[in-house]
Structures are given as structure tokens and as C-alpha cells.
Design a protein that fits this description.
By secondary structure, this protein is of the alpha+beta class. Helices cover 39% and strands 22% of the residues. The chain has 19 helices and 24 strands. The strands form 6 sheets. Strands 1, 2, 5, 6, 7, 8, 9, 10 and 11 form a 9-stranded mixed beta sheet that branches. The two termini are 19 Å apart. It binds serine.
Length: 642
């Protein structure tokens, strides 16, 4: 959907703040009201099997709500990085089409764990928006859960909202979840109260444009959700009362920045415009072309942020699980680059801009810069090799199926139910041979007005998995056991600190020793072992890429204890050193961790600075493009496709 170009009717008094300043002021506002500032957790939830990614601020506090975990504070404030690409909250399809939905976004939140409840949550939200941010109160509307008389009365009698700017929604018993928030099918949940911003009646799309059309109507935007946590939804069971009532609020940084900066789309805030600028520079596009191509620009900007943060948090492109979500994100972005006419790699540049924009708020991005850019470069080049050939194959199949006009950005759900259907087996072949994720095939088919037999695709995929499953069963069981162990260590001991930028050796403490999925306090003799340290100079990779090798020795560089053959990150920022033991290793003792300097130097040569990386990329991309051409994509088809 193109973003309307009508400027919003920006009220006077509103503070046109940069996003970085909004983050800072939010934290300071609640810190001044007794809240402890808590850092954002990783996008990969530690030890939570119910979620693929952190999809909201409450993920890291889930066990605090249930009373299972105690913290030293009962009030907290944070800015949490979130990803909504899977499960109950999934905005992948909306990206690019909607001016306010993202896969990756930041949620600012204030939290009460059995401390304050509805009154303070509502009053502080109101004060922050109207006093601290200068938003006129008459631009705000509030909704409550249908039978939440307490919240309703606070808004009406204490805040003084007029009835025409209030609404009650939701009826959980009748299956209407509106204004009742839950992170996943199970877990802490409760009624909520949303705050919506009114951009002005001139943006109304018809008489129906009231706050409850906030998701689609440009006049209203939901900016803040105040959740009053009262219940725990048991898996396949009843909803029971939590031991104490809590507050979870989520204020979308991108949406608030949009309001404050007086723009209509999140993509026009200072969180995104530098990414567009980088891409426009690469493509030589002027502002008019940018407007005409917003859909692809927005997909690329959104996905550049998501991929950068995912890799920073230890995910690498892979064929399963989290790594596959990342792969889908990168591949969709590569394809949108092609739609814009870009044949050379570009995602390293847009990701570098993301790191520039976000690096101050998230120093992890700066620390991991080289690793992030190298992983993106690898995946981009790999997919670019098959993208043209796969696209040509797909179009060859699609074009005879339909006379429909091609519309870039047509939603798959807008394709007529009786439209022609592309066979699932064909979609599977594209997946298998050319690495086309199914959603990319569906997106491309929808552009041509064709549906994809998704069920047929799943059958073909299932058959292939079944074939390769047999011999892997035992391996998978071992892997699951190990993952649970790693999660437990991560929860108990926290992340491994990487100290390898300063030096290739360091004195470190042994946190855990594992062999065949069993944790030992002490291991003696020879054989394989996995060791986790509190800090490490070893640079870890994942997803099949080998990290540093070297030695663990007795403290001070004494006798060898473990010949490190592999370094990897199985969970979040936990680093595991796997290798052969010689002698005795004990949990709690200090060891010297020494990276093989020769190998590190070779790795470094490949990672030294963006300049070299870019040049290398251009070389690789050149050969990749020629190879794609030689696979026989006739020019006219490519011309038609792009
Ligand atoms: N959990 C709520 C949400 O994500 C408020 O933080 O909307």
C-alpha cells in the first residue's frame, strides 16, 4: 500500500525528537520514578522452548510474572529489541505494504512486578506522552478491555478523557482477544488498555475510521499498550490467577518517532531514512523513484535491521529453525534488490548503515560488526547465484498459467480463490534446487495473480525430510539434550564475554564441562569435551562455520588441557569450546585460553575492514552473476521479471 503523501496535521507543542533521544527520555522518565533500567535481552529467548524469537518486552520477564523468578527490583524500564516473524505474532507479510509493521522493532516498556497497577500505569503513560513528549491530550484516545471498569474509570474520571475518545473491546470467552494480551498460546496474560494517536480527521478513510481501525486507517495509530497481567494461561488447560498482579507496557519506538517527527510512515523516521539513503546512493535513485519503489525499499530497510540484529544475537543462515527464518529474510531482501535493478550485493552496505544508526544504543552491533557483515555477504552471494535462474524457471511456469497483469506487492491473500494454481511439487523443486523459500515463491506467484499449492509443497518437503530423517534420529536426540544443557548454563551463568578483539589469549574461568550431553565438575584423561568459560578470546561461529581453534592450558600458559578444535555458539551469546582433553579440567579453575594465531590471522585477513570486504564481494558477485547467466535465463525473461 503506498503511503499517503498528505502531511499529517502536526499539532504545535509536540517535540520533534530523534529516536535516540526518545529512547533516552523514556528510560530517564521511568528511572526517575523508581524503575531499574534493564538492558534489552537477546532476540533469541534464553531457555524458552515456547518461542522462536523475543516477540515482545515481556519475554525476559515471563518467569518474574509467574513468581518463579525473583529479581532485586519490582519496577523496571527497558527498550527491548523484538522480532515478529513466527508464531502468534507474525508481521512478515505486512512488511513493505504497511507503513507501521515490521519484523524487527523496538519496544519501550515500564514494568511492575507485584508493585503498582492500573492507576500508576495509566497516569505515567499519560504524563510521559502529554508532558514529556508534548503530545496534546486531545490527540489521544484510549481503549480498555470490555469489562475492565477500573481502567475505564481511571481514564474517564482521573485523566478526564471524553467518552467519544474512549472505547471498550474484547470478549475472551467468546474468542475475541482484542484488548486481552498474550505473548503466546500459553503463559502470563491479561486485559490491556491501548493508547491511540489521532493524526487528524483529514486522513480518515471513510466514516468507519475510528480507533479500532487503527491497523488499517492512516488517521489513527496505536502507540502504547498497557497490559495488566493477572492470569497465567496453562498449556491446554485453564487460565489461572497469577500470584500477584503486574504491569507490562509496550510503547513502539518507531510509531512514537513517527508521531513526534511529523511523518506518516515509520519508514520516514530517522531510524530508517539513513538506510533508504544508502540504497538510493547505490542505485542512483532520486526521491521520485524512491516513492514509486517504496514497497521494495521498505522491505529491504526492515529486513536489513532484522538480519543485522539476528546475526548479532548469534543466529546464522541455516535450513532449519531460527537460521531458516534469517535465511528467508535475507533472501527476500536480495530479491527486492533485484526488483530495484540491483545486481551486485548491497546488503552489506545497508546492514553497515543499520550498525551506524543503532550502534550507540546497541554496542553489541559494533562489537560484532565484522561477523555480521561477513555472514550477510556469504548468504547474499550464495543466493544471488541461483536467484536469476530460479526466477526465470518460476516465470516460465507462471506466465502460461495466467493473463493477469503483474502487480508487484499484490498480497497473496488478494489473489482470487479461483485463480490458477502452481503445483506444490514445482514450488518444492525451486526450494530444493534454487534455494527459494516457499514464501518467496508465493510472493512472486501472487504478483502474477497465481496461487501456490502450499499443501502439495508441504507434502513434497515432508517426503524429503522423511528420507533424510532415518539416520539422523540419534543425532537429533543428542542435539536436543545438549541444547537443553546449554540453555541451562546460559540461564545460570549468563553470556560468555568475547575478549578476542584485544588479544588472542586470556585467563578465563571454567563455568561448565560437558561430554556427550552430561555436565561434569571435573574430567580427567583424554577424549572429547566441551568447555564453557566466563570470557574467551575464541571467535565463535555457528551454522556449520568453524570458529577459532587453539588450546586451553593451565593458568599462566602451563601444560595443555584441551586442544580446541571447534568454537561455536549454541544458544544466545554462549560460546562452547569443543576439543580433545589432555589431563584434568575442573569447573571453577582458571585456565589460559590461547587462540591459534596463524589461523586467526588468516581469518582476520578475510575480515579486515569494509574496504577489503567490499572489494572481495564485488569479485565474488561478478563470477556469481556470470554463472547465473550461463544457467540460461534468456534476457527477455529477466527484463520482464525485474
Ligand atoms: N506485551 C504487550 C505488547 O507486546 C505490551 O508490552 O504489546
Amino acid at each position: 500500500m503506498p503511503t499517503p503523501l498528505v502531511p499529517p496535521d502536526q499539532p504545535p507543542g509536540i517535540s520533534p525528537l530523534p529516536a535516540a533521544e526518545v529512547r533516552r527520555r523514556f528510560l530517564a522518565f521511568f528511572a526517575a520514578r523508581g524503575h531499574t533500567v534493564v538492558p534489552s535481552a537477546s532476540l533469541v529467548p534464553a531457555g524458552d522452548q515456547t518461542l522462536l524469537f523475543t516477540n515482545s518486552g515481556m519475554v525476559q520477564f515471563k518467569e518474574v510474572f509467574t513468581g518463579a523468578e525473583k529479581r532485586s527490583y519490582t519496577r523496571a524500564v527497558d527498550v527491548q529489541r523484538c522480532l515478529r516473524v513466527a508464531g502468534k505474532h507474525n508481521d512478515f507479510e505486512e512488511v513493505g505494504r504497511s507503513p507501521r509493521h515490521h519484523t524487527f522493532f523496538e519496544m519501550m516498556g515500564n514494568w511492575s512486578f507485584g508493585d503498582y497497577f492500573k492507576r500508576e500505569a495509566i497516569h505515567w503513560a499519560w504524563e510521559f506522552l502529554t508532558v514529556e513528549m508534548g503530545i496534546p491530550g486531545e490527540r489521544l484516545a484510549a481503549t480498555t478491555y470490555t469489562d475492565d471498569e477500573v481502567a475505564w474509570a481511571i481514564w474517564r474520571d482521573e485523566i478526564g478523557l471524553p467518552p467519544e475518545r474512549m472505547a471498550r473491546w474484547g470478549n475472551v470467552e467468546a474468542g475475541d482477544d482484542k484488548n486481552f494480551w498474550r505473548m503466546a498460546e500459553a503463559g502470563p496474560c491479561g486485559p490491556c488498555s491501548e493508547i491511540h494517536y489521532d493524526r487528524g480527521a483529514h486522513l480518515s478513510e471513510g466514516p468507519e475510521c475510528v480507533p479500532d481501525h487503527s491497523e488499517t486507517c492512516p488517521r489513527w495509530t496505536e502507540i502504547w499498550n498497557l497490559v495488566f497481567m493477572e492470569f497465567d494461561q496453562l498449556p491446554d488447560g485453564p487460565r489461572v490467577a497469577l500470584p500477584f498482579s503486574s504491569v507490562d507496557t509496550g510503547l513502539g519506538l518507531e510509531r512514537l518517532a513517527t508521531v513526534l517527527q511529523g511523518v506518516l510512515s515509520n519508514y520516514d523516521t530517522d531510524l530508517f531514512t539513513p538506510i533508504h539513503a544508502t540504497l538510493r546512493r547505490l542505485l542512483g535513485h532520486d526521491p521520485e523513484v524512491f516513492e514509486a519503489e517504496r514497497f521494495s525499499y521498505q522491505v529491504i530497510a526492515d529486513h536489513s535491521r532484522a538480519m543485522t540484529f539476528l546475526i548479532a544475537d548469534g543466529v546464522l543462515p541455516a535450513n532449519e529453525g531460527r537460521g531458516y527464518v534469517l535465511r528467508r529474510i535475507i533472501r527476500r531482501a536480495v530479491r527486492h534488490g533485484r526488483l530495484l535493478g540491483r545486481r551486485e550485493p548491497f546488503l552489506v552496505e545497508t546492514a553497515a548503515t543499520v550498525i551506524e544508526v543503532m550502534g550507540e544504543a546497541y554496542p553489541l552491533l559494533r562489537d560484532e560488526r565484522e561477523r555480521i557483515l561477513a555472514a550477510i555477504a556469504r548468504e547474499e552471494v550464495q543466493f544471488a547465484r541461483t536467484l536469476d535462474a530460479g526466477t526465470a524457471q518460476l516465470e516460465e511456469a507462471l506466465i502460461p498459467l495466467t493473463d493477469a497483469e503483474r502487480v508487484v506487492g499484490r498480497r497473496p491473500e488478494d489473489v482470487a480463490p479461483d485463480a490458477p494454481v502452481l503445483a506444490g511439487a514445482f514450488a518444492f523443486r525451486l526450494h530444493d534446487t534454487y534455494g527459494f523459500p516457499i514464501d518467496l515463491t508465493i510472493e512472486l506467484a501472487a504478483e502474477h495473480g497465481v496461487r501456490v499449492d502450499r499443501a502439495g509443497f508441504e507434502v513434497a518437503l515432508g517426503e524429503q525430510r522423511e528420507r533424510s530423517r532415518g539416520g539422523r534420529k540419534a543425532e537429533l536426540a543428542r542435539h536436543a539434550q545438549l541444547t537443553a544443557q546449554y540453555d541451562e548454563i546460559l540461564r545460570r551463568a549468563g553470556a560468555t564475554t568475547f575478549v578476542g578483539y584485544e588479544s588472542t589469549s586470556a585467563e578465563c574461568r571454567v563455568l561448565a564441562i560437558l561430554r556427550d550431553g552430561t555436565a561434569y565438575d571435573e574430567l580427567t584423561g583424554s577424549g572429547e569435551a566441551e568447555v564453557i568459560l566466563d570470557r574467551t578470546p575464541f571467535y565463535a561461529e555457528g551454522g556449520g562455520q568453524v570458529g577459532d581453534t587453539g588450546e586451553l592450558r593451565e593458568a599462566g600458559g602451563g601444560s595443555p588441557l584441551l586442544a580446541v578444535e571447534e568454537t561455536f555458539r549454541p544458544a544466545g551469546t554462549l560460546v562452547v569450546h569443543r576439543g580433545r582433553l589432555h589431563g584434568r579440567l575442573r569447573v571453577g579453575e582458571t585456565v589460559s585460553a590461547e587462540v591459534d594465531p596463524g589461523r586467526r590471522a588468516r581469518t582476520m585477513r578475510n575480515h579486515t575492514g569494509t574496504h577489503l570486504l567490499h572489494r572481495a564481494l564485488r569479485n565474488v558477485a561478478g563470477s556469481g552473476a556470470r554463472q547465473a547467466g550461463s544457467l540460461g535465463s534468456p534476457d527477455y525473461q529477466i527484463g520482464r521479471a525485474h
